[in-house]
Amino acid sequence: MTGNTFGRVFRVTTFGESHGYAVGCVVDGCPAGVELSEEDINRELRRRRPGGRLASPRKERDEVRILSGVFEGVTLGTPIAMMVENKDANPKAYEGIRDLARPGHADYTYFAKFGVRDWRGGGRASGRETVARVAAGAIAKKVLSKLGVRVYGFAREIAGIRAEVEGDIEEVFERAERSEVRFPDTEREGEAIERIESAIREGDSVGGVVEVVVRGVPAGIGEPVFMKADAYLAYALMSIPAVKGVEVGAGFEAARMKGSEMNDEMYAEKGRIGFYSNNAGGILGGITTGQDIVVRVAVKPTPSISKKQRTVNLKTLENVEISVRGRHDPCIVPRAVVVCEAMVAMAVLDLMMIQGVVPRFFG
Prior knowledge:
Layout (H helix, E strand, L loop, with lengths): L4 E2 L4 E6 L5 E7 L9 H11 L15 E3 L3 E2 L2 E2 L4 E6 L21 H8 L15 H17 L3 E9 L2 E2 L6 H10 L10 H13 L6 E8 L13 H10 L4 E6 L10 H4 L3 E4 L2 E4 L7 E2 L2 E2 L4 E7 L9 E4 L6 E4 L10 H23 L8
Antiparallel strand pairs: 1-2, 2-3, 3-7, 4-7, 5-6, 8-9, 8-10, 10-16, 11-16, 12-13, 14-15, 17-18
Helix pairs in contact: 1-3, 3-8, 6-8
């Protein structure tokens, strides 16, 4: 199995299965001299882990152990290995459907590729793997913060209810973090929650849209032609389970605009170049403009639902019905926000390191 590593200079390899002993990652390429503690990682993991009545009842503490690469509170420049034990795994919940391919899951495709699969909650294909991404993303955020770069994420849309966003991105982010579902529109938050509650009553699930904004990236970051900043971000975000689409800036709305509406007109002031708008999402020709980078991702509804669905027994090839019971999120969007932030942080940092704007040592 290949494809477990992301990055060119800042490289992250994740490991582990949903109901195995642990999940984790090895981060290679992190500069030396960055202050880093387990609490820095745990702070981000707490944002990702389930909690409250609208999330999975699986209660994982998600506390990281840093195994290498950090000494006396700073990174050494050597590989950083991190592990999070699965304390609340329950593989027995899946024994009754171990041979059934759950619709919307990777059960069939993993079996088609390998001839064998981990049926305990999806194994490697489970969203549980994203714990490792968030841990690695926490390190990327620490490095970016030393460069004046910040990453902000929130739920732009849940179950068709779209947030009307006003104010500076820091204010939007703070409102979202206070929300039960990371929805920054206080007037429409109740509607979004009602849509989730309705799906729970029906044994169903809902999806939505996550928006991530990156502030502080200088102009000139990105590698034409096949390592464009927007292409790399899309690659990073599409690797997240449940993400089915990515847009940058105006995104698909650009298809309905005229050139005179889409183009971001420019001006010069005090020796600097600026823009009157940001329909490009902070990237032109695959290279950053110095404006906020704005990306959005479409997150599909959680595929594990209790509603009966038609499927196939992979062992007998019989047509059967399945109802997936267990501990699942009726809407994965609020937790996906943190995962999207992590992947964006890793992609941006990697691009900056490729460009050579990140020192190998912070003293």
